[in-house]
Design goal:
Helix content: 25-40%
CATH topology of the largest domain: BirA Bifunctional Protein, domain 2
CATH architecture of the largest domain: 2-Layer Sandwich
CATH class of the largest domain: Alpha Beta
Strand content: 15-25%
Number of helices: 15
Radius of gyration: 30 Å
Number of domains: 3
Distance between the termini: 60 Å
CATH superfamily of the largest domain: Bira Bifunctional Protein, Domain 2
Bound molecules: aspartic acid
Number of strands: 22
């Protein structure tokens, strides 16, 4: 037997009992001829005391795996450690077995010296053995468990969809898997189970969910990985409102169970309003500093930029910013494609500095009224096309959030962003694209003639955001094959292509698909945010590095020539590319 208890279990109640523990040597201390070892496992740390030399004791080093048997005894009064669950006791060891040794460690496991990301990923098993890292994965487990419980309670059925699929478009590149038994053909790895969950609704399952792995061959950033997991679900015979209500209830339950937090009701904001007030379709609504449109008002000024601009958006900062601070915000605005950031400061009498000299009395007065200006504030302006001005100012707003420390990481504010446009225009490729994916339904008033006025069409399509992050997307789906074909045609998928790529889906809808809709909700981002982290890799057991490689197993690696032969695949040399 390896253990009678875990390393986090023994308390004063066990005093006098014999116990056997197994685990890793966390630290070794000598004190007056006595050896103290902290023994660690997933559950905690227990102090071991060796009053005499046992065989093997002097050879022990950190991270050796040992088994010990001894007697639980109370620690003397002054040596009680209130921080540790087992801090009232220690185990006086009688028997020691070394189960496995540990070589010189490639990373500092005391956490004092930080390892590079690459080293942490290469030795991820050591990295994860450190309690603060392991605890993130354990917490993720709690969150996933709470989701499962809540989804099950709501009557959702967990169904696995295939990993080898026909491409499911989510706007990213597919990972492809060649088929040996079907030479010249490939499967795609699913970007999401989208088409399969829609087909499960046609089959009549009514409420489906899955903790689904989604694979997308994208360039990586801190919040992107080649694989991520979604709580993916779909419901039949529901309105978008009902879908959102159901999922809001589920998320509230997850926060209650895992963080003992009562979330307030989620805000509901239209896309238009989110852009207007926050300059973002994933607004951080934990703080104010809302944008204000002053286009018409400042057109009356002598400032040509304002006069010629399509739109001018203003933001009032509740304090006087220094030149340096304004320049920094100007850089942010430019990084997000604004031509510049104009400014002025308020004083009791009039506006000062920046562009104030171009603002005549009347404009100043109206600005003061409209923006309710007070003494000692700074007004920022961006002029551009509407969405461009809004989104650049939205980024300035976020920079101010961080600079002025306006939010608290423990504050969780969810918002439903509804009434998204169904299409957006891709300037580079000069064509209309679906805002989300092509399976989302236009709102009823646009169904008849969406082709005629694509820029105006709203979809029954929404996002869920948390603290400025997009957490989920969802929509009511196009369960009518004729409308689906029209959408495909409109975004440039001709009849033949539609048949080749999605014929199976269009066919399925010919046999009676129920009205349905659903969502996909990213787990990693949620768990990271719950823990106040920006990097989703911290909550993934084996994430890839920024080049989509795994430093631990060396993937991706060159394939075995025999395997390529069998697949009848030859890589093109670079020059033939
Ligand atoms: N499949 C979508 C996504 O991955 C979510 C959905 O519409 O259900 O974003």
């Amino acid at each position: 037997m390896f253990r009678t208890h875990t390393c986090g279990e023994l308390t004063k109640a066990h005093e006098g009992q014999e116990a056997t523990l197994s685990g890793w040597v966390n630290s070794i201390r000598q004190h007056g001829g006595i050896t103290f070892i902290n023994l660690r496992d997933r559950y905690g740390i227990t102090q071991l005391v060796f009053n005499k030399e046992l065989e093997g004791l002097s050879s022990l080093k950190n991270e050796y795996v040992i088994k010990v048997t001894g007697t639980v005894r109370a620690r003397p009064e002054g040596l009680i450690n209130k921080e540790m669950a087992t801090g009232e006791i220690e185990l006086a060891v009688k028997e020691l077995t070394i189960l496995n040794k540990c070589e010189k460690l490639p990373i500092d496991m005391s956490g004092q010296v930080e390892s590079t990301d690459e080293t942490r990923l290469k030795y991820r098993y050591l990295d994860l053995r450190m309690p603060e890292h392991m605890n993130l994965i354990l917490f993720r487990h709690e969150v996933v468990k709470a989701f499962r419980e809540a989804m099950n309670e709501e009557g959702f059925v967990e169904i696995e969809t295939p990993i080898l699929v026909k491409a499911t478009p989510e706007g990213a590149r597919d990972y492809l898997v060649p088929s040996r038994v079907n030479p010249g053909k490939v499967y795609a790895l699913p970007q999401s189970p989208q088409l399969y969950k829609q087909i499960l609704m046609i089959a009549g399952f009514d409420k489906y969910y899955q903790l689904a792995r989604c694979l997308r061959d994208e360039d990586l950033r801190a919040d992107r990985q080649p694989e991520h997991t979604q709580v993916d679900f779909e419901m039949s015979f529901v309105t978008s409102d009902e879908i959102r209500k159901t999922f809001e209830k589920i998320i509230k339950q997850v926060f209650k169970k895992t963080m003992n937090k009562e979330l307030e009701d989620f805000a509901i904001i239209s896309y238009e309003e989110a852009m207007r007030r926050y300059g973002s379709d994933k607004p951080d609504i934990r703080f104010g500093l809302e944008l204000q449109d002053v286009t018409e008002l400042v057109k009356k000024s002598d400032f040509n930029v304002f006069k010629d601009a399509g739109h001018t958006v203003a933001l009032v900062v509740p304090r006087e910013l220094s030149r340096k601070e304004i320049d920094k915000l100007g850089d942010v605005a430019k990084r997000y494609k604004a031509k510049g950031l104009a400014w002025a400061k308020t004083s009791e009498e009039r506006l000062e500095g920046g562009i104030s000299k171009f603002l005549n009395e009347e404009v100043q007065k109206e600005l003061k009224e409209k923006l309710q200006l007070k003494d000692g504030q700074t007004i920022l302006f961006i002029s551009d096309r509407l969405r461009q001005a809004q989104s650049a100012m939205g980024q300035v707003r976020l920079a101010l959030r961080d600079q002025l420390e306006l939010v608290n990481k423990e504050d969780f504010k969810f918002a439903w962003i509804i009434d998204f446009p169904l299409f957006h225009y891709n300037e580079e490729e000069q064509r209309w694209e679906p805002e989300h994916h092509m399976f989302s339904m236009p709102k009823p008033e646009f169904v008849d003639d969406f082709e005629e006025r694509p820029g105006e069409v709203l979809g029954d399509l929404w996002d869920l955001t948390l603290n400025g992050w997009e957490m989920a997307s969802g929509s009511i789906r196009v369960s009518n094959p004729e409308i689906q074909k029209r959408i495909m045609r409109f975004i440039g998928i001709d009849e033949k292509d539609a048949e080749r790529k999605f014929g199976f889906l269009l066919e399925a809808y010919r046999y009676g698909g129920p009205p349905h809709g659903g969502m996909g909700f990213g787990i990693e981002r949620l768990v990271a945010l719950m823990k106040g982290l920006d990097d989703i890799r911290e909550v993934m057991a084996f994430p890839k590095n920024k080049n989509a490689q795994c430093p631990m197993d060396g993937s991706p690696s060159e394939p075995d020539p025999a395997a390529l032969q069998e697949l009848k695949i030859r890589f093109l040399a670079d020059k033939e590319d």
